[in-house]
Write a structure and sequence with these properties.
single chain, 432 residues, alpha/beta, Aspartate Aminotransferase, domain 1, Aspartate Aminotransferase, domain 2, seven-stranded mixed β-sheet, 43% helix, 17% strand
């Protein structure tokens, strides 16, 4: 058999296997999500992955600028993280959440060292939603109040309190939208609405993503976050910073709130803390917010929270993110991509309307109600994986990694430059 024939046969075999995976996923896993991606024209089944590249089962290569919400800030299967896990498993396993642990204590100490001032204790979870639930429970215990204030179109996860605090898009499906007196939503960047919500003096906390991700990364107005912090102090509520997607150097600082000069009472980190290697999340709390730890240390338990292998990986994640060259690279990538994006925007004929940016957190705005969906598909067809914002499909979440180099930035920009006009042509009613 010739080489060409062999390659063709191999490709056909992989396509058959891929179809089988898709069929099995629709039958046994998640029929709605599997069908939705097919409707979007995305038939991705991820196979091999390395660095900032994903490889489809058919062998197609994709540059990952979705990063699963920042889970892969350092890339897929970063060799130092893989090595840390391999070394760790020679000695550790998940551990027992009831007892003190060498690496759990070490990670907690390091997180506090890197945290904004005033955060004193670390409580572990296995994922972001669980960690948000822990944070809100801490706020309710500390204040003796039930009301949770969040922003409209926010996203904090899919567990009990987390989903109730978030957008109805996810809470109503499971009758989890909560008592409207206990869960209050105010517009982002509206300080008057926030003051009105807090003025009764009955709120346990305000919880905010520093830059709301699933809403398309709208940027906080100048002075907004410090003003919310001041209102919390004035009215006796705690400030909870959801740093699940904005932490770990994505803004150019270790934590996004540090970029805005805010000291939270509670801070949540997850996703990227795992390095995409082993699940782990953490809630950092002040003395007041962590008071229950003295009263009843068994008040919250999580079998997999702070799994020791996860702690081993997270310690290496923090070490890498703390390197001066990583901070410098985030600054370079931010500035370099900005220039390229502005050039692409200028030649888009008004379709590409805006760039929301803080560090390597970017939301690209398009002049169509579902514009980012079309750009997502055009990028996918050109070997780049980015995702539209679920709660504002005009905006493409565009999240390059902390360690991208110039060559990769150039490749991303070149493919985006092709994708934007292609997406515009694909819009319903567009001229052929």
């Amino acid at each position: 058999m010739s080489s060409a024939s062999s390659n063709k046969a191999e490709h056909g075999a992989w396509s058959t296997r891929k179809r089988a995976v898709l069929e099995k996923s629709a039958r046994c896993w998640n029929p709605g999500k599997t069908a939705s991606w097919q409707d979007f024209g995305v038939d991705l089944v991820i196979d091999r992955r390395e660095g900032y590249f994903l490889y489809d089962m058919d062998g197609a290569r994709l540059i990952d600028v979705h990063l699963n919400g920042g889970t892969y800030n350092l890339g897929h299967r970063h060799p130092e993280l893989v090595e840390a896990l391999k070394r760790g498993i020679d000695h550790y396993d998940i551990g027992n959440h009831h007892f003190p642990s060498i690496v759990r204590a070490e990670l907690a100490e390091r997180l506090i060292e890197l945290a904004p001032e005033g955060l004193k204790y670390v409580i572990y979870g296995s994922g972001g939603g669980e960690a948000i639930d822990i944070a809100l429970k801490c706020a309710r215990h500390a204040t003796g109040r039930r009301k949770i204030i969040s922003v409209k179109h926010c996203y904090h996860g899919h567990t009990g309190l987390a989903v109730a605090a978030g957008d109805p898009r996810f809470s109503r499906l499971f009758l989890s939208d909560g008592d409207p007196h206990d869960f209050v939503h105010v517009p982002f960047n509206d300080i008057e609405a926030m003051e009105q919500a807090l003025s009764a003096g009955d709120a346990a906390c305000v919880i905010m993503e520093t830059i709301p991700a699933t809403y398309g990364f709208p940027m906080p107005a100048d002075g907004y976050l410090p003003a919310v912090r001041a209102l919390c102090t004035k009215h006796g509520a705690l400030y909870v910073a959801d740093e699940v997607q904005t932490g770990l150097m994505r803004t150019g600082e270790m934590w996004g709130v540090q970029s805005y000069g805010v000291q939270p009472d509670i801070m949540v980190t997850a996703k990227g803390l795992s390095g995409g290697i082993y699940p782990i999340a953490a809630v950092l709390v002040s003395e007041v917010a962590g008071r229950w730890l003295h009263e009843d240390g068994f008040g919250h338990m999580s079998t997999f929270g702070g799994a020791e292998l996860g702690c081993v990986v997270a310690l290496k994640v923090l070490e890498i993110c703390s390197r001066p060259q990583v901070r410098d690279n985030v600054r370079f990538v931010s500035e370099y991509l900005r220039k390229g994006l502005e050039r692409i925007q200028a030649q888009s004929g008004g379709f590409f309307t805006g760039i929301r940016q803080r560090g390597v957190i970017l939301g690209l705005e398009f002049d169509h109600a579902r514009g980012a969906m079309y750009v997502m598909r055009a990028l996918y067809e050109r070997g780049v994986w980015a995702i539209f914002s679920t709660l504002d499909p005009r905006v493409l979440q565009f999240k390059p990694g902390l360690l991208c180099d110039r060559a990769l930035c150039d490749e991303i920009l070149a493919r985006l430059e092709e994708a934007v006009p292609a997406a515009r042509r694909a819009l319903p009613g567009a001229a052929a």
